């Protein structure tokens, strides 16, 4: 898997990138910084499904995930879901050309962040969506 595209505010801590099929929030395992906006584009190999595994996931919790969140967006630009709070152990399956992960933190509470692992599996290996 190639490294992802990363964007971050100038003069702020870098967003990082996908390394060895793993994505960590800025500062992980310590608290992530305030005012981060990071976009990560992860390619999905042809004829494969991407299994996105939340190995460790702890973002500021709020009922509508309006403060700190991770959005997963498919290659058609549609938001698959938005996550916050504690989601360790969660899995998401996506197919297509790529997946975009958007991480946002506001100026309020900070948490540990996330450690996410990407595994490309053959189409049909999983017959249900964990989402």
From TrEMBL:
<keyword id="KW-1015">Disulfide bond</keyword>
<feature type="domain" description="CUB">
    <location>
        <begin position="1"/>
        <end position="121"/>
    </location>
</feature>
<dbReference type="Pfam" id="PF00431">
    <property type="entry name" value="CUB"/>
</dbReference>
<protein>
    <submittedName>
        <fullName>Tumor necrosis factor-inducible protein 6 protein</fullName>
    </submittedName>
</protein>
<dbReference type="InterPro" id="IPR035914">
    <property type="entry name" value="Sperma_CUB_dom_sf"/>
</dbReference>
<keyword id="KW-0677">Repeat</keyword>
<dbReference type="InterPro" id="IPR000859">
    <property type="entry name" value="CUB_dom"/>
</dbReference>
């Amino acid at each position: 898997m190639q490294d992802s595209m990363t964007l971050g505010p100038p003069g702020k801590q870098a967003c990082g990138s996908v390394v060895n099929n793993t994505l960590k929030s800025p500062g992980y395992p310590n608290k992530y910084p305030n005012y981060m906006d990071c976009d990560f584009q992860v390619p999905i190999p042809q004829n494969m499904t991407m299994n996105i595994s939340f190995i460790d996931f702890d973002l500021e919790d709020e009922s509508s995930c309006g403060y700190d969140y991770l959005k997963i967006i498919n290659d058609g630009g549609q938001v698959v879901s938005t996550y916050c709070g504690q989601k360790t152990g969660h899995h998401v399956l996506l197919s297509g050309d790529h997946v975009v992960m958007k991480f946002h933190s506001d100026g309020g509470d900070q948490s540990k962040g996330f450690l996410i692992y990407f595994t490309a599996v053959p189409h049909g290996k999983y017959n249900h969506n964990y989402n």
